[in-house]
Amino acid sequence: MTVRKVGGSLRLPAPDRLLSARTGYTRETWLAVADHLLDSMMPWFSAGAAQVRLPGRGSWSGATCDGLEGFARSFLLAAFRIAADEGRGCEPLIERYARGLVAGADPDHPEAWPRLTPCSQQMVEAAAIAVALHESRAWLWDQLDPAEQQKVVDWLSGFVGSRTWDNNWRLFQVVGEQFLASVGAPYSKDDIEGGLERIEDWYVGDGWYTDGDGQNYDYYIGWAMHLYPALWTRMAAATPGTEYEDRLKVYRERLHRFLEDAVHLVGSDGAPVHHGRSLCYRMAAVAPYWTGALLDATPLAPGATRRLCSGVLRHFVDHGVPDGRGLLSLGWHHKFLPTTQPYSGPGSPYWASKGFLGLLLPADHPVWTDREAALPGDEGDQVRAMAAPGFLVHSTHHDGVVRLLNHGSDHASPGKPGEPEPAADPHYDRLAYSNHTAPEAAPIASRNRIDNHVAIVGADGTTSHRGSINRIGAGGSYASSWSHAWLPDRGPWRIETASVVHGAWEIRCVLVDGPGGVVIRHGGYALAAEQRPDAVTGGSGRPWAHVIRADGLASAVVGLHGYDGAAVWRDLDANAFGPHSATPYLVREVHPGGPLVLVSAVILSGDTVWPVAMAESVEVAVDGLRVDVEFADGAGAVVRLGAVADGPRCLVRTAGGQEEVVVDGGGNPAAAGETA
């Protein structure tokens, strides 16, 4: 087999452009990356193999639990790797993890794992171990002697009758106890049924769940809320007497529908959207696509599934993941701790193992043998309104850029009545995200709230934050929402934002019902890179700011109505994409008090951006709370802000002159094909 070196010590098979014309990656590539990740962890195993003590910042759970995490999450990858070749050639891998498993489960061993207690981090890792044991059962579990098996059963039995956090954690208990059932150990049917019934409360339609109560839409929907029920069905099928067929049918239908949306969250270059928490799990983002193939529950052709998943893997490999030591760091393309959460330790990134789920598909499965097939974003620009999570996604195929306009996911904690809502994470409270940019996440930059945010700025420079997102509507090329904004000494005020997309452009219409005399600031996408991005500002009646990276990616904002200034904010070590970051923004220097309408164009593009031409080519007319927009190609939109009792809230006109009401006055998407 021909190999090629790709940074550090990673060696990959030569690209196969006949089978995989777009990525060059094949099943052998996935096996090579899996082997490299597993081999690179060997120096970090403890003497008894129950701990993988990786270098890096520890989590709030402590060093012992971090070591368990390193073992459990890499064991999941090992299980997929063992199953891929039915154990052949995997004897050292099997021996290492079997030895560590028995040592960790033995309460008298020096490397004994903490017992499972309610809501403990051990529950997360125990679920990984349960899944790994099931998927590698013939080659590992079945080879343990009865006494060794009993030690593992005793440890996993901490799930039975216990309590978890009321979100995706409910599913850890489900798979943990289903494994116990599958090996004839005591378990609680009520625990399993209760967990599966609880996620029904979180199903919101169109294939989407929320991760617990609230508006928690992120990668956990794919790599947890869809993944674990699917894995449970595989365990249940191996447990005599377990009824699972009815649930499997429901899970397959939901996953199929979810993937119709989720396919739009990865760019034509393989870069996934940078949004939400736990982004250091990286390749885990492809878990639901593999799951769709595993359950025969996907709208994608087999070759399209591999093309998408391999595209994501190649994106990270091409950007230095894993690092030169063969390890996965706490970050995105490289280590960047502000992107992480305090629950993440050095073993946390190995949830990337979920992204290798496709290795459970045999070598002769069409997902591996069919030629790569095109995805929607490979063949043209895409616009997708996702009403369930409140997303409006638009992508451009020539530059691979995907933009997620966020009108529904806030991951917010409810505030006390009459008091300011707590500030949300920058990975949730921004107006937009993309697959080539990240929010400014370092503490000071996060508090400044410039990128993709509309802020009321007090006299002391304090900025308001975006409160809980209240949806207005989403459909076609439009989405809108409103939130409360506070300053430390006063508020709240209502800020409404409506987005209309046209190619790479977003027209943002903002209604700020704020106090007189304050500054209103509105930012675009933050660009970050190893080199300092270039920046320029200009305009008088229509101010603009433009930032460009060395690779040609450009971010710009153009004031189309109501703004009187523009500038660029620069920061250092604030962004996951590089040490130097720059954000273009617009200002209204003095809010007159009462309702104020502001309109801007927000652009993120790998193509050349001409802010002056943009300012000259878009016609905007504002009449009260009505905004009329007309583009140079004849397309346009009418957006009505504020209270709209009847009639269209948004009417979109195509370049051919056809008009369509995409959201009616009640804030609901109009019936398909309804015209004005």
From TrEMBL:
Coiled coil: none annotated. Residues 26-373 form the DUF2264 domain. InterPro entries: DUF2264_N, UCP014753. Residues 406-429 are annotated as: Disordered. This is DUF2264 domain-containing protein.
